Amino acid sequence: MSVRRSIVRGVGGYLPARVMTNQEIASRLDTSDEWIVQRTGIHERRIAAEGETTSDLGLAAARAALADAGMGSDAVDLIVLATSTPDQTFPASAVTIQAELGITRGAAFDLQAVCSGFVFALATADRFLNSGEFRCALVIGAETFSRILDWNDRSTCVLFGDGAGALVLEAGEQPGERTDRGVLTTHLRSDGRYRSKLYVDGGPSTTGTVGQLRMEGREVFRHAVGMITDVVEDAFKATGYGAKDIDWFVPHQANKRIIDGSAHKLGIAPEKIVSTVDRHGNTSAASIPLALADARVDRRIKPGHLVLLEAMGGGFTWASALVRW
Ligand code: ACO
Fold first, then answer.
1. Distance 282 CA to ligand 1 centre (A)
2. How far is the CA of 162 from the centre of ligand 1 (A)?
3. Is the full-model pTM beyond 0.85?
4. Taking 90 as the threshold, does the pLDDT of residue 1 lie above it?
5. What is the largest CA-CA distance in the chain?
6. From ligand 1's centre to the CA of 322, what distance in Å?
7. Which of 4, 144, 188, 218 is spaced 20 to 30 A from 194 at the CA atom?
């Protein structure tokens, strides 16, 4: 019996031109390249130029994904943009991208689940494509976290960077077999009891300001590996796949120690990890599609490969997805 699935047609990424190294941060704060690399695996991150917005980054990534798919924007009838750093409180930055792409049909909206946002957006677009309501989606993660960082707080500002990545997903019939291509399963979780562990201390209905990121880093670290491995096990249970079946593990790029710890606990071989955290830092909702774009550029991920995505972040939120390319 054939099954309607969301099939990946293209992937693209965009990084702002400006590179900020650990040495640059260490030249004005009490930190060091050695401390940052040892605790996080991060060497450098990109920072958006003055006037360069989240929708600018998202638009560039969307254009790259459409070019990779060999499709025009006229094919797209759904845009889901995962971001915690929109251009404005409203309208959604997704509608800016929609207008810039010249799309006037279908729907475009933002979705906010912090670092898990991309997997939440993928799951949302997948449901709309499976239901037949839309046919072709741009799923975008785009962030300008540099705008919400406290650049005097060495415990947070060294961790994050700016960037965007996008996938083109198109609905298609598959045979309903183990070799089916497309999004095979997604699993979303959140637990608001942890909302004060990682948050922004401002917003429209509290302070009327944008606010800055605050984090209890050790607490986030303490929960991360357990939550990630739990939600990945959910994906394995739902599909019958296991660690040995995975071709590529593309985690949210928060911290090398969290990534390696999760892969180790799941039994995923280190050579299957796609890692960009050394060059990108944590770009929140953009980190997974940026890593996918990286693996696409060097053709590591090939048609037929089984790709495991996972993320964990503010809320807490955490999520997993299994996709056959
Ligand atoms: N440079 C030098 N020293 C620092 C820095 C820095 N940039 N930041 C903190 N320190 C100091 C602290 O002040 C503290 O000093 P003290 O012992 O004199 O008080 C010491 O280093 C240890 O601080 P901890 O916070 O306990 O350091 P830890 O080993 O936990 O590492 C880190 C901190 C890297 C933030 C870690 O907790 C972590 O990775 N947490 C996960 C957070 C994360 O990845 N968040 C991203 C968002 S959530 C997500 O995407 C999953």
1. 14
2. 20
3. yes
4. no
5. 62
6. 31
7. 144
The answer to whether residues 186 and 321 touch, using CB atoms and an 8 Å cutoff, is yes
Given 3.30.930.10, 3.40.47.10, 2.120.10.80, 3.90.550.10, which CATH number is that of 3-174?
A: 3.40.47.10
Structure tokens given for 131: 């239901």
* Overall fold of domain 182-324: Peroxisomal Thiolase; Chain A, domain 1 (3.40.47)
Q: Which atom of ligand 1 is nearest the CA belonging to 40? A: 34
What tokens does 228 get?
């990630």
Active site residue 252: yes
- Say yes or no: do domains 3-174 and 182-324 share a fold: yes
pLDDT of residue 292: 98
Q: Give the tens place of pLDDT for each residue, 125-135.
A: 999 999 999 99
Smallest CA separation from ligand 1 atom 14, residue: 155
Query: Whose Cα sits closest to atom 13 in ligand 1?
Result: 155
Residue 313 has what pLDDT? 98
Query: Which tokens in the block code for residue 23?
Result: 């040495």
Closest CA to 150 of 29, 55, 287, 281: 29
